[in-house]
Amino acid sequence: MRADQNSKRGKDSMKQYNILFLCTHNSARSVLGEALASTHPSGKFVGYSAGSTPGTKVNPFAAEIAKELGYPESKLRSKSWDEYGLPDAPKMDFIITVCDNAAGEVCPFWPGKPATAHWGFPDPSQVQGTDEDKRRAFKDVMIGLKKRLDLLADMPLETLDSLSLKEVHTKS
């Protein structure tokens, strides 16, 4: 078997962990989390995102970054967190809130008791100024989320609990 086939087989057989990123409107930070997790070089994550009161569309700056990461544009949509509480929804391993509002809201019941954490970031969609200022704010959030996902990928995920997941926040 060729080396490239061998490495692909290893990646395919590795357990992947579902991460649901939550933010109130599911248009910016949580969408970036979904795209970053799904395109993470470790191959360990499948990202999802949702909000308590989803917006009508994904913020164009978040969509631009997600597409640059190689995330399919067809998956970019603002979703209600109710979708992930349904019986046929993917089982989540981790639930991460990325905005302070969502962290304080009463969340639905998540089947399987996933580990939870809050990785708060300022809302880049609230930044005033030029498109370049706004783009920079989104990139800052992307860099912060990527650092935390890199740390998470290096942890023993099969034994991770909510307390350990919260430590990722303090190390970044």
Report what the structure shows.
- Keywords: Arsenical resistance.
- By secondary structure, the protein is of the alpha/beta class.
- It has a single domain, classed as Rossmann fold.
- 40% of the residues lie in helices and 12% in strands.
- The chain contains 6 helices and 4 strands.
- Strands 2-1-3-4 form a 4-stranded parallel beta sheet.
- α4 (100-104) links the parallel β3 and β4 (115-118).
- α5 packs across α6.
- The radius of gyration is 16 Å and the shape is globular.
- Mean pLDDT is 85; it is low at 1-11.
Could you give the order of strands across the largest sheet?
A: 2-1-3-4
Q: How far apart are the termini?
A: 40 Å
Proper CATH architecture? 3-Layer(aba) Sandwich
Class inferred from helices and paired strands: alpha/beta
Task: List the domain count as a whole number.
Answer: 1
The low-confidence runs, each spanning 5 or more residues with pLDDT under 50, are 1-11
Number of helices: 6
In CATH, the homologous superfamily goes by the name Response regulator
Mass-distribution shape: globular
Radius of gyration: 16 Å
H/E element order: HEHEHEHEHH
- Indicate the CATH class: Alpha Beta
Q: Summary?
A:
The chain has 172 residues and is of the alpha/beta class. It has 6 helices and 4 strands. Strands 2-1-3-4 form a 4-stranded parallel β-sheet.
Topology:
Blueprint: H1 3-13, E1 17-22, H2 29-38, E2 45-50, H3 60-68, E3 94-97, H4 100-104, E4 115-118, H5 131-153, H6 162-171
Helix pairs in contact: 2-3, 2-5, 5-6
